[in-house]
């Protein structure tokens, strides 16, 4: 049986390519209204939707149960701190399996680009500030969900980064701000 693999388009000069799609007129109208409401171009909106799909939506379909963000946060907050820690330690290493399943590189850049940034942007888990020095990434995760949420995030990202890169991240925590250097 022949295996067919995807090969990206070779680009010589531009990072952008032109693509034509057929979509139902009512979808086009809805997208146009959403773009107008958001004060962006239709092209910009479609690019945002496609990026979210390839970087986030596909990842959550692999053995995931989607629950509203606030419900998940409240569950973690209601657990004893030790359970919040255990949940982080259990879920974190699954990121390596998700990356492998989706063909994502197993490195620090992938963790930042395909997970930390996406979770900050789409899940509401935290606000994010990223900086770089030398070959290190510094991600500051800021939230207002309390001590258990910090415990969960610390153990989740500590175990995720360790599982994906094999390296131990440096983590600092102070009052709703978690700084991860990896």
Structural class: alpha+beta
Give helix and strand order, one letter per element, not per position.
HHHHHHEEHEE
State the distance separating the first and last CA atoms: 42 Å
Number of helices: 7
- List how many beta strands DSSP finds: 4
Mean of residue pLDDT values = 86
| Shape call | globular
| Helicity, as a percent range | 40-55%
The percent range for strand residues is 5-15%
Low-pLDDT regions: none
Cα-atom Rg, whole angstroms? 19 Å
Instruction: Give the strand line-up of the largest sheet.
Output: 1-2-4-3
How is this structure best summarized?
This protein has 182 residues and is an alpha+beta fold.
Describe this structure in words.
This protein folds into 2 domains: about 25-60; about 70-180, no CATH class. The chain is globular, with a radius of gyration of 19 Å. It is an alpha+beta fold and about 180 residues long. The chain has helices spanning about 25-40, 40-60, 70-80, 80-90, 95-100, 110-120, 145-165; strands spanning about 125-135, 135-140, 170-175, 175-180.
């Amino acid at each position: 049986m022949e295996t067919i693999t995807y090969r990206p388009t070779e680009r010589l000069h531009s990072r952008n390519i032109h693509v034509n799609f057929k979509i139902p007129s009512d979808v086009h109208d809805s997208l146009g209204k959403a773009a107008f409401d958001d004060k962006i171009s239709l092209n910009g909106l479609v690019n945002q939707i496609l990026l979210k799909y390839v970087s986030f939506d596909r990842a959550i379909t692999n053995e995931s149960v989607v629950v509203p963000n606030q419900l998940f946060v409240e569950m973690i907050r209601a657990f004893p701190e030790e359970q919040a820690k255990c949940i982080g330690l259990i879920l974190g290493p699954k990121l390596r399996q998700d990356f492998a399943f989706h063909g994502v590189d197993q490195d620090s850049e992938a963790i930042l680009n395909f997970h930390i940034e996406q979770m900050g942007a789409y899940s509401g888990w935290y606000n994010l500030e990223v900086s770089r020095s030398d070959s290190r990434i510094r991600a500051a995760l800021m939230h207002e969900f309390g001590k258990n949420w910090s415990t969960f995030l610390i153990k989740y990202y500590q175990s995720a980064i360790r599982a994906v890169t094999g390296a131990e991240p440096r983590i600092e925590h102070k009052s709703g701000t978690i700084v991860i250097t990896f």
